[in-house]
């Protein structure tokens, strides 16, 4: 059994060798899958961490570890995608919490030109939605109305507003994807 210092240097060497031999392939797959350098880097690091935690999977008698690493990377990416997809869209009766913020996806809007292009893109995507979905999004996000206020203006129950907003956001996301924009 190695002592702590020997184990730490051996662990560092294992990670270094894995990264040296398989890092480029893992990076290429992760970047192609996510189209986001930061997320790809996080996925590769998580994959190497899982390899470090399961050294038996890297045993030379089992053959090349690359298939295991790629399968692990796939699982990491799926887990990350599921975590992002599972985040609920929150609505409240607080108008300050609805539609606030100046972010687009994971990026903060930097200048007026970017904001204008994003505004036109969202407007084009909104035109693809049904009247009910478009109307509820306009009331809640563009006019900044709370769920209760939007329900009153649209003459529908608050629960219907929440439901329509949920499905309208999903439809908007799909419309943006069809337009080649990754929200």
Automatic annotation (TrEMBL):
Residues 18-85, 125-173 form the RNA polymerase sigma-70 region domain. CDD domains: Sigma70_r4. InterPro entries: RNA_pol_sigma-70-like (IPR039425), RNA_pol_sigma-70_dom (IPR014284), RNA_pol_sigma70_r2 (IPR007627), RNA_pol_sigma70_r4 (IPR007630), RNA_pol_sigma_r2 (IPR013325), RNA_pol_sigma_r3/r4-like (IPR013324), WH-like_DNA-bd_sf (IPR036388). Pfam families: Sigma70_r2, Sigma70_r4. Signal peptide: none annotated. This is Sigma-70 family RNA polymerase sigma factor. Belongs to the sigma-70 factor family. ECF subfamily. It comes from Actinomycetospora endophytica. The keyword Aminoacyl-tRNA synthetase does not apply. Keywords: DNA-binding, Sigma factor, Transcription, Transcription regulation.
